[in-house]
Amino acid sequence: MPFTTPRLLAAPMLAAPLLAAPLLALAPLGLPLSATAASADSCCLAATTDFPKVGGNLGNQNYSALAKIHKGNIGQLGAAWLTSLEGGAKSGNNQSTAVAVNGVLFIETAQGRVHAVDGKTGAVKWSYNPGRGGQTRRGVAVGDGKVYTLTTGNWVIALDQATGQVVWERQHNGYGNIAKVAVVYHDGLVHVGTNDGNRGAALAFNASNGDLVWHFFGSAAPGTIGGDTWEGDTYLTGGATPWIHPAIDPQLNTVYWTFGNVRAGSSQNGSSRGGQNLFGNSLVAMDVRTGTYKWHFQSVHHDIWDMDNVMAPVLADITVQGQARKAVVYGSKTGMHYVLDRATGVPINPVDERPVPQDARQKTWPTQPYPRGGSFVPTCPTSDGPARAVPNFKQGCLFTPHWDEPILTFPGQGGGADWNHQSFSHTTKLIYTGVGYVAVAHSLTEASNGLRPLGTPMSGGVVAVNPATNTVAWRKALPWSVAHGNGILSTASNLLFMGQPDGTLLAMDALNGRDLWKFQTGAAINASPISYQIDGEQYVAVFAGGSGLPFADAPRGDYLWAFKLGGTVAALPAPKPPALRRDITAAAVEGSVVNNLITLNRSYSNGVVGAVELDTTNAMAPQHLRVPLGTTVTFSNPATNTKPHCATQFFEGLFNIGPLAPGQVQAYTFNQRGEFFYNDCTSPRATGKVVVY
User: Does 284 have pLDDT greater than 60?
Assistant: First the structure.
């Protein structure tokens, strides 16, 4: 079934944007000539001397026209300076990308502060501490002589760009959690998203005083466009928050917001919220000055998998079958790109609505959109390779419904890709995306948004996709998932820069992904590198701070780095890298303490095996066992259990014990060093690990 052309609705303002200030006050808001001139800029001019916003330009292309650092001299690239922004703090979730304006970098930290840093020397020019505690943040905006930031408590703040003094601060409640979304400034408006709430709106504020100009809720109310796609009043808790910064096309007078997953009680339970649930899992184009709805594209209908394709949209001018097209490239978690005409929302590359498996209890939607050209990651679990599945779970492909039994599907809600920043190269005409390979088990018995089974590999890679054909040009494997903030910078010299969770900053060949250079920053990188120029020298900068997703053990820091040709600052010692598999956090128990006995599907606490049969993830007693090489370990299904149980070792295939009936035991001798995960065949959530030393 072909995709239905989006309906264009220019007026009236049915999506309920609120005009809190007269539009006449916005044109031109008394802006200086330079700012007024900038308002007419194209979305897609390449960043050069500056890198003025998160994403580089209004089209979020993460591309720099600078080319003084190239493949011929990349070996001479070294650190120009390192600034420890928070006195060596190693906590919080640092996901902030720096911006560079007039030789100064502006950056936020997990401690909630904003810093202005000299881009040539690394000296801190000023710091702002709002005093409202730490928070996850993703980047400030700079414009009209101000730096715009957010703090906890739904505060939007403007600072003097030169001094860091507060120009204005305004608290705006009632529109969702104004907290961690990167801010975008354009033409007298500050665009701010909301996150992690029952209902959230995309917001536009007057840059001169913080007045709310318009809002657009992601879960549509009755009587508005999309309001008939929610059952009852579930839109009030529908989620669908816009938690990543938008793109803007000034020539089309359009802002493009992506809205996230649906909630209404649970992101995995659709039983009470029949309908497509607009504008969850959607890209919405709206008038940049008023918030008036123009068109939308929903990439997942009636989401029950937390599969919001909320990655910041990328605007790209491409050539398709000899015709110049203005495209918006959208999509992430499903592992598919949706390449749309940015004026109309009509797919440039066809998108088919295909029938998908159904479950009436979940009120699943009968079809889902599949772009022709395919996906950039597998859409089903595999028996080998990066999408391989943990054993014993019932498996399904993308869009397989679930109920009370966990169903393991791929890609999981951690990727495909997630919220890392894509890059569109003006030279190669390719879109570069960091991906993660993490399967997820969904059911109504799971908390939150699904279970990443213990022992799951969490590898990743980079894919280069030709948006003109929606086909993969090349792919590169990496040991860790790079789908959570690990943005990519492309340059005019066909270089790619990207950070990894182990602290390594990589430079790669944009033509094939080949490694060209690497540097150890000392902490995980969950932000995008940027490039700028001062006194004729090109710099690359990145913030290495670390974040908890998907690696809870990712190394933390507060390191803002800048690199240039001939830089001589030494790399930091390599931190302990995160585990390559989703690890067990239970404390290790020496085998001798428990007579080398593991009791299946029971809890273990303070040396005591629980008395109740369980199917929880920690239901192995003990869950984390350490034994010397050559030790024989006995696995026991207690006689007081009611079900048969197993110990299926994966992925090394050392043993597959069971099924053991209640009262049965079986032993295995470990003659190989390493760490070995196993789970139960009856209740595969229950997982243990044996470490052999």
Answer: yes
Q: How far apart are CA 518 and CA 270, in angstroms?
A: 45
Q: Residue range 585-603: average pLDDT?
A: 97
C-alpha span between 404 and 615 (Å, rounded): 13
**Distance between the two ends of the chain, CA-based, in angstroms?**
57
Backbone torsions φ then ψ of 33, nearest 5 degrees: -55, -40
Q: Which of 445, 220, 223, 262 is nearest to 363 (CA)?
A: 262
* Contacts with 514 (C-beta within 8 Å, 6 or more apart), sequence order: 508
Query: How confident is the model over 489-501, as pLDDT tens digits?
Result: 999 999 999 999 9
What is the per-residue pLDDT across 309-354, written as a single tens digit (0 to 9) for each?
989 999 999 999 999 999 999 999 999 999 999 999 999 999 999 9
How far apart, in whole angstroms, are the C-alpha atoms of residue 160 and residue 144?
9
Q: Which structure tokens are listed for 525?
A: 């990188």
Q: Write down the mean pLDDT value for the chain.
A: 93
Tens digits of residue pLDDT in 536-557: 999 999 999 999 989 999 999 9
Residue 653: pLDDT band by 50, 70, 90 thresholds? very high
CA–CA dist 675, 141 (Å, integer): 46
- Contact assessment for residue 174 and residue 25, using Cβ atoms and an 8 Å cutoff: no
Mean pLDDT for 409-435 is: 94
* Partners of residue 156 on adjacent β-strands: 150, 170
CA 666 – CA 658 distance, rounded (Å)? 8
Give how far Cα 394 sits from Cα of 81, 306, 365, 440, 650, Å: 51, 19, 22, 11, 16
d(CA 322, CA 111): 50
Alpha helix positions (H), 191-248: none
What are 133's two structure tokens? 């505690």
Q: How far apart are CA 95 and CA 182, in angstroms?
A: 10
Burial of 339 (0-12, 13-18, 19+ CB in 10 A): buried
User: Can you say whether the dihedral through the CA atoms of 435, 298, 6, 313 is positive or negative?
Assistant: negative
Question: From residue 31, how far is each of 11, 460, 553, 596 by CA, in Å?
Answer: 29, 45, 46, 74
Helix (H, G, I), strand (E, B) or coil at 375: coil
Token digits of residue 218: 């992601």
Sheet holding 495-499, edge to edge: 63-64, 488-491, 495-499, 504-509, 515-520
pTM: 0.93
Q: Tell me what pLDDT residue 4 has.
A: 34
